[in-house]
Write a structure and sequence with these properties.
By secondary structure, the chain is an alpha+beta fold. The chain has 14 helices and 23 strands. Strand 13 and strand 14 form a beta hairpin. Helix 4 packs antiparallel against helix 5 (about 175-195) and helix 5 (about 175-195) packs parallel to helix 9. The model is unreliable at about 1-15, about 95-115, about 145-155, about 160-175, about 230-235 and about 465-470 (pLDDT under 50).
């Protein structure tokens, strides 16, 4: 969800800091508004943490109110007055509904249609109101000054410390309603943002414990189920336990693991009573209340959350409702972390199968490789290989498949084994490319025919142009090395790939091949090869377009023979140092992380 960039006036003496933004009327708007205001106030010297937190909460609730009850774009405007008071106005284009006054008989956790967030606004603001104009409505609020703190930039906090900050003070029966009415919605919003960014289920569980203890309970435990235990209907797995007193954690863990939760039939996340583990809590914990919540996401049970508080016969309804809301977010975070872990595992297995387990050592040749996939969570489109082909020959390949992910993995899974097979069968460089080109075309044709038959069988409709898989393109630099007395003979060919460069000991750089057509594009294409001798000290550099097309604004790294100039500065360096220097220059050129896969191979005659 994009916002129109915030317009923020300069903070010159005598001028009030202020800002304005337009947000689309989507569920993501409150989070964007919170981020904008928090970032803006962080740049204003002297703004207290309390005022920043209250302002963020109020802006979030006003934007939520506008999104839920208007559904139009939302205009957010704020200013910090000279007195230190914070004023915010949130406008929408749906004036027909007035927000209800927060005064009423609803408890904070009844799902009222209107006014739930405005109760929080009324609590935090010294004044608030609604202004109607033709075709528009604005809800405004004014927060009192929150005090002045020394002007400094706070260091970013790790996730666990943020969670501790959201749950710093324990609450008891008399205070629950007051705190929940004032800060529960802000707590839930911040907790949601915190959990949503985690990709490790163990960290999600740890954050859950830090969020709940001691704010909402004296202790809590999380059981995360694997798929087998989930099907069996048991709690499964070890308990992750938190207690307001660390001295009680181990004893409580032992007691809870002896009696893990046993959820009933069905997929229900509402709380159920859990046996009180009094013996593990010492004299002050002889009795209390404990509740178990099933963690469910996507119709699948993922675990169980148990909370406990000493000295109560039952939890207040406000707390049970809040923990149930939090439990849903915890379950979604666990589910997302598990999905990410599954994808990462599959990708790692695919990647290991698509790349050689080791790079061959060639007599009389030093080699160095840099391989950096852009997407660490999926198979790369770049690949490499360096292997013995028999009869005193070694072969190398650096390739780049159109696209990434599974489609790229399919092409690499075809190309790399066939390269090795054809080379070991004695086929020379040009013949290998001819046959690999035909293999890719045949495979694409067969896949398209199969898809067409499936489409016709499924729907009985004629096949349209573009249905089914598309042609798979592959750029490839492939070569053969034969060491001999006085150097290395190299035969190579480039099919739609960045051309290789040879660096001489004197710093001279020359191109070592000529451009030819991509593989998998033209039927019956005939490829040719070039042969050259690498004398001692000569270095052959092979790269993918992640090097040559690395961007800095409108410029690319290889503009004006940039790669050749960079290589000429590597004269006298070893293969390893040449590879590292080119890698560093490519990274430095763009000023940020590369946006494409990067692979480069250096072969240096000794």
């Amino acid at each position: 969800m994009a916002a129109i960039p915030t317009q923020r006036e300069s903070q010159a003496p005598g001028r009030e800091p202020r800002g304005r933004a337009t947000l689309s009327g989507s569920p993501l708007a409150p989070g964007s508004a919170r981020a904008l205001v928090r970032a803006a106030l962080a740049e204003v010297p002297g703004v207290s943490v309390r005022l920043a937190d209250d302002a963020t909460a109020v802006v979030s609730e006003l934007v939520t109110n506008a999104v839920v009850h208007a559904g139009t774009d939302v205009e957010v405007e704020w200013r910090l007055e000279a007195t230190g008071a914070f004023v915010v106005e949130v406008g929408d284009r749906h004036p027909s509904r007035a927000p209800r006054d927060p005064v009423g008989g609803e408890t904070p956790y009844e799902a009222a249609e209107y006014g739930r967030g405005l109760r929080l606004v009324a609590t935090l603001a010294e004044s608030w109101g609604v202004t109607y104009r033709t075709g528009a409505k604005t809800v405004w609020a004014r927060l009192p000054p929150g005090g002045v703190e020394p002007a400094h930039e706070p260091a970013p906090l790790p996730a666990l410390e943020v969670a501790e900050g959201l749950a710093t003070q324990p609450q008891r029966v008399g205070c629950d309603r007051e705190w929940l009415g004032r800060g529960a919605l802000s707590f839930l919003a911040e907790a949601s943002d915190l959990l949503a960014g985690q990709l490790d289920e163990n960290l999600v569980a740890a954050l859950t414990g830090q969020l709940i203890v001691p704010r909402l309970a004296d202790w809590c435990a999380v059981w995360l189920e694997d798929e087998a235990s989930a099907r069996g209907g048991t709690g499964g797995g070890p308990a992750r336990v938190w207690h307001a007193s660390e001295a009680r954690i181990e004893e409580l863990r032992c007691a809870l693991e002896k009696e893990p939760p046993c959820p009933g039939d069905g997929l229900r996340s509402n709380p159920e009573r859990y046996p009180w583990p009094g013996d593990a809590l010492g004299p002050e914990g002889t009795h209390g209340a404990a509740l178990a919540y099933r963690l469910i996401a996507g119709g699948r049970p993922l675990g169980t959350l148990v909370i406990g508080r000493c000295g109560l016969s039952r939890f207040p309804d406000e707390v049970t409702g809040l923990v149930e809301d939090l439990g849903r977010r915890v379950a979604l975070a666990v589910g997302a972390a598990r999905q990410y872990a599954r994808q990462a595992t599959i990708s790692a297995v695919l990647q290991r199968g698509l790349l050689p387990g080791a790079v061959a050592e060639i007599p009389g040749v030093r080699s160095a490789l840099v391989y950096e996939p852009c997407d660490k969570g999926g198979p790369s489109g770049d690949f490499y290989d360096l292997f013995p082909a028999g009869d005193g020959r070694w072969c190398f390949a650096v390739g780049d498949v159109q696209g990434k992910g599974p489609e790229a993995a399919v092409v690499i899974g075809l190309a790399r084994p066939w390269l090795r097979l054809l080379a070991r069968e004695g086929y020379r460089v040009a013949d290998v490319l001819d046959r690999l080109n035909q293999l890719l075309l045949d495979d694409a044709t067969e896949a398209a025919d199969a898809a067409a038959r499936a489409l016709v069988a499924a729907g009985g409709r004629p096949v349209r142009s573009g249905d089914g898989p598309q042609t798979r393109f592959l750029s490839l630099l492939y070569g053969e090395l034969t060491p001999h007395d006085g150097g290395v003979r190299c035969t190579l060919a480039s099919a739609g790939h960045p051309l290789p460069l040879v660096l001489g000991p004197d710093g001279g750089v020359r191109t070592a091949a000529r451009p030819q057509t991509l593989l998998g594009v033209v039927e019956d294409e005939t490829y040719t090869s070039e042969t050259l001798d690498l004398r001692p000290g000569d270095s052959l550099l092979c790269v993918t377009d992640g090097v040559t097309e690395r961007r800095s604004g409108s410029r690319q790294f290889d503009d004006g023979d940039g790669l050749a100039r960079a290589l000429s500065g590597c004269a006298g360096l070893s293969a390893e140092l040449i590879a590292e220097r080119i890698r560093r220059l490519v990274h430095d050129f763009g000023g940020g992380l590369p946006e494409d896969d990067l692979a480069l191979l250096v072969l240096q005659a000794e």
